[in-house]
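Input/output pair, single chain:
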Amino acid sequence: MYSILDIDLDYFNLMPDAAHRLGQLLNWAACPVSMVVERHNHAFARWRKKWQGNGITPSHILHVDEHHDMMDQRKQTNIANFMFHAMRLWPQCRVHWLVQHPIDSPGMWLEDETWKSLRRRFSYGPNRPAWWPKPDIVSVCTSPEFVEPNLAAELMEVLSEFMADYHKGKNAEQGAPPVRYSAGLHSGR
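Output:
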């Protein structure tokens, strides 16, 4: 069983104490952040690349996002449809859309037969199912056009505590201070 924790920072837009909530989620994961991307469909491409060569398919995706990202069935993967593509590529994979206030449903956007075939593996709600497996990969989408800059900076500070060693080196190469992985939250949060 392989699981993905997929976080889009736009999920935290209207959330009080967003940084603390992100820290709680990452503490539950007990897994360093594996990748940070600006566009969600780029995370999907990296998931495929990571597992495709090994013949591994994820069994669960916890999709923490303001949007369900199943808004069309176009062949080209984009930020609005990449979760549809993930569910089609991995036909046994379950997806839980962690959302406080869903604005719509994938059933509104997908063809009836397509949604009928996917909906038994798709759930949503404000709480993570208690039985949901901890992730093997944590991906984060920054969605800069959907997240106010001050909130993004606050959330990125929390993320820096949970970055994988790969990102530490990459950040150091770019002149940024090294980050550390921590099982705890920032003090004072």
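The two ends are 33 Å apart (CA to CA). The beta strands are 3-8, 35-37, 60-64, 94-98, 122-125, 137-141.
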